[in-house]
């Protein structure tokens, strides 16, 4: 995994794990790699992975079954979407709005582009 120097590594690992769950690589109730396994796989310190897992537990995305390991929670999909939406609204959207304003892009133009994007990328007919 290539890490971005502008974002905390544990948060980048959070994003990686959330993506695995959203893509159903790790489905609900599935056991995820141990802290040590994940640290080796990603080439990071186990303490960084533990920080990641603590964060994910606090957001009810994974749970620790003592003595067995970490598992994807039943509510993980909705919790990930809630978390990612909050981050997007606070961090990404203000920059998008700034660019829309500076480039004088109309809402109608955005709507058309968005609808085309959805059709081209997510609708299979």
Automatic annotation (TrEMBL):
<keyword id="KW-0238">DNA-binding</keyword>
<dbReference type="Pfam" id="PF00392">
    <property type="entry name" value="GntR"/>
</dbReference>
<keyword id="KW-0805">Transcription regulation</keyword>
<protein>
    <submittedName>
        <fullName>DNA-binding transcriptional regulator YhcF (GntR family)</fullName>
    </submittedName>
</protein>
<feature type="domain" description="HTH gntR-type">
    <location>
        <begin position="7"/>
        <end position="75"/>
    </location>
</feature>
<dbReference type="InterPro" id="IPR000524">
    <property type="entry name" value="Tscrpt_reg_HTH_GntR"/>
</dbReference>
<keyword id="KW-0804">Transcription</keyword>
<dbReference type="GO" id="GO:0003700">
    <property type="term" value="F:DNA-binding transcription factor activity"/>
</dbReference>
<dbReference type="GO" id="GO:0003677">
    <property type="term" value="F:DNA binding"/>
</dbReference>
<dbReference type="InterPro" id="IPR036390">
    <property type="entry name" value="WH_DNA-bd_sf"/>
</dbReference>
<dbReference type="InterPro" id="IPR036388">
    <property type="entry name" value="WH-like_DNA-bd_sf"/>
</dbReference>
């Amino acid at each position: 995994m290539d890490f971005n120097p502008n974002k905390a590594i544990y948060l980048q690992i959070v994003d990686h794990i959330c993506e695995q769950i959203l893509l159903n690589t790790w489905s609900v109730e599935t056991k995820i790699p141990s802290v040590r396994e994940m640290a080796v796989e990603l080439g990071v310190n186990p303490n960084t992975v533990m920080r990641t897992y603590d964060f994910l537990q606090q957001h009810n995305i994974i749970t620790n079954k003592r003595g067995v390991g970490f598992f994807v929670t039943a509510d993980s999909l909705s919790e990930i979407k809630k978390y990612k939406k909050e981050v997007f609204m606070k961090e990404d959207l203000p920059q998008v709005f700034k660019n829309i304003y500076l480039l004088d892009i109309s809402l109608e133009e955005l709507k058309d582009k968005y609808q085309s994007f959805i059709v081209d990328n997510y609708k299979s007919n």
